Amino acid sequence: MTKRIGVLNLQGAVEEHLQALRRARVQPVSVKSVSDFDQLDGLIIPGGESTAIGRLIREQGLENQLRQFHQEGKAIFGTCAGLILCSTDKTHETTDLRLGFIEMEVERNGFGRQVASFETSLDFQGIERPVEAIFIRAPYIQSVGPKATILARVDDKIVAAEQANVLVTAHHPELTEDDSVLTYFLSKC
Ligand code: GLN
Prior knowledge:
The chain is α/β, with parallel strands linked by helices. 22% of the residues lie in helices and 30% in strands.
């Protein structure tokens, strides 16, 4: 049966993920409310502005649903702002939403606000060929807890990790034609 993969559609790079899912021949689902979580095999939390997405998650009453989806062991993929939302991020005093799905501390806009965007190729654990990666005002991961696995780095900065059913990348895989990270995620769904 075709997998049904949701994209949290509150703010950010939603359409690009829906298109990438179509290319991958799975069924994309735009997720805006609790009922949209029905029968999903996986969920993507897109890039955008983590503060705005977090606020909308709370306003739309989706926080518990997200936590339940995670507890059920369903696959979740956070990209960029989505990575920030999946973190524990105890280093920063913030009231912004942090779902704590991966034990990790993040540095928002970690590559600097000025030289904000760049493209590079990544050695990505579990993917044979180098991954084409676009970073836009991206965070990096400062440290991960013992349950998380580091999947990629740019210089000494961690930019991809996974823990159980959750995968995160600081880059935007949906903005390139390189679907290898999406394929990797779909293998977990
Ligand atoms: N800088 C954004 C944030 O802190 C993330 C940028 C992105 O998702 N492309 O939320």
